[in-house]
Structures are given as structure tokens and as C-alpha cells.
Batch of 2 targets.
Target 1
Amino acid sequence: MSVFEYLGVLISVVMGLGVTHVLIGISKTIHHRDTVRVYWVHLWWAVNVLFYVIAVWWGMFWWSTLGEWTFFQFLFVIAYAIILFLLASLLFPWDMDDDFDFERHFYDNRRWFFGILFLAWCIDIPETILKAEGGLRALPAAYTAWVTALLVLAAYAAWTDSKRYHSFYAVFWLVWVLGYLSLTTLNVIAV
């Protein structure tokens, strides 16, 4: 068994728990649709996070070609998976009351949610650089501008409670990330 296969099991479990939490949250929302107050921005972020976790999970496959691993690399990749799980877990409460208000929940947790999103992008930077330095993936030319925009927008989202900004940012985030991924090497992983 290679190191990546061993690591891949743990990554899959942690990220799979994040995906599961979001999907269960969406399912509970559907089941309680007559009594909960749904907020479209919150649901849009559920889709964003679901996509983000799956995209990072896909991107982790580049690590499969690395022959020798350091403990730092091992911890770093696991930390990224853990941060993404935390991001997913903040979207939906573990227990949902019948009169749950998702708009209030979203704004009450926005500092934590967008702070962890900011942290995830901070971890993405060295993770992407380590892949490039290890010869696993070329560093896309647009990466610096792309990730800088994501960091600035996430920091502002943590700070502001502007509904107008959060409506814009939820949609912009998905368009920005999908656009970048479709224009870079992430759309194909060849090993």
C-alpha cells in the first residue's frame, strides 16, 4: 500500500463526513420545509461548499504520484481536509428545531464560517505551491490573482452583515471558482 492510498482513506473519511453533513442538512431542510425559514443565500453556500469539498477532493489526487512523503506534508493535507469538514459543519446545526431560521443562523455564524473559508484558502496556497514544487502540478498563471480575490472577499464577508453583499458573494464565489477551475489544469488530472 502506498502512502497516498493510506492517506487517501483518511482524507476520504473526513471530506466524506463534510459532504454527508451538507447533504443531511439539505435533506432535513426539505423534510422541515413547512416549518423552517429557508434563506436562499444559505442554501447557495451549501451548494458552494459541497462543490468546494468535492473539487479539493478531486485535486488531492495529484498527491498520488508523490513517492516520498514527509510528516509535514501528511499533516498539511489532513489539516486541509479537517478545515473543509469544519466549513461544511457550520452550515447546518446538528439538531434542527421545527421553527429554525436559516437567515438568522447564517448571519449569527458568518464570522466563523467565512473565517474558516478564509483559512481554507490560506491552506490552499502552500498546498498548491507544494504540488508545484514537487512536480505534481504546474502552478496556474492566474492562481495568485484568483486566490487573492477569494481571500479579500471572504475576509469582507466575515466582517459585514450586508445582505446585498452576501447575496452577491454567494453567486460570485461559485462563478469565480468554476471559471478558474475550467481554465486551469484542475479540469483534468493525468497520472
Target 2
Amino acid sequence: MRLMPLSVREHDSVIATAALAYFSGVHFQARFPAWLRRIASKEFFVGVLFTAGCAAPALSCLRSTRVEVSHLWPTLAGITYFAVLAWLNCAAIETWESGFNSSRIRGFAALICLIGMSIAAALFFTQNRASALISTGVASGLLLLRLDLKRHRFAPVTLRALADLVLLIPGLLLALGAHRG
């Protein structure tokens, strides 16, 4: 334990805490009050855990470089946005596979995209990187919305794969932008 750098221990502690929250939420959900069960769904925990795993390295870099508070909130907004997007992905897949009416998914997707566009527009002139990151998330949200509208044209396995693929769009767009810049 003494040989492991503090930053690595903190990073692993974040991931372990997120995993513990996920397993606790999934396996002990029946013990939660009804209002908490609606919020703390399996899809919610997967979205938070997935985002925590993706964001932990970036957060550890931010911590080591003493970032100003004015630069921290756009990063946290982006992380929160992607957690919601990951939740939407899981909720859409669960809805499609269960055969439930997906009109709520379309409503959530549209709302999430509008919120993302608003955040990206607010950040455009002052935090253009954060604006670009959230804009790519909006692209993923719009693609999930499009998939929901066309879901009957795809086999279930293909639909699930496409839903997961659209979450890669931000990374692909950012990689292309970094390559060009």
C-alpha cells in the first residue's frame, strides 16, 4: 500500500465506491423506498458507474494541475451530461427489449438534447472545449432518439449494438477534431 502512489489509490477508490454503489443498488433495491427505487434504477447505476470509470482519469489530471474553479464547473457539467446520456442509453435498451412503449424515451432524449444544446451554447465563447464535448454528446443523444424512432427496423441485437455505438460518437468526433487541429 505504501508503494502505490496516492493518486492511484484515490482513482481506484472512486471506481470501487461506484462499483459498490452499483451492486448495492441492484441487489438491495427492493429495500429502498418506492420513490428512491424510481430514481435509483439499474440503468441509473450503470450510467453513473460507466461515467465514473471514464471520467476518473480526467479528474485525477485536473486535481494534479490545480484547475481554476471557473474551469471546473464546465468539466463537471460535461461529466454529469454524459452520466445522463449513459443512463438514457441503458433505459432505451431496457425499454426496447421489454417491449414497453418508448414514448418516454423519446421525451427524455429530446429533453436531454435540448439541455445539452443550451449548455454547449452557454459555454461556446468562454469554454469552447467543454462546449465541443457536450455538443458531441448531443449528437449521441440525437442518434439515440433516431434509433428509437427506427427501432422496429433492426433486430434486437443490432439495435443494442447501435445504441452502444452512438455513445462512442463523442470520442470519435473529438479524436477527429484533435487530429485536424
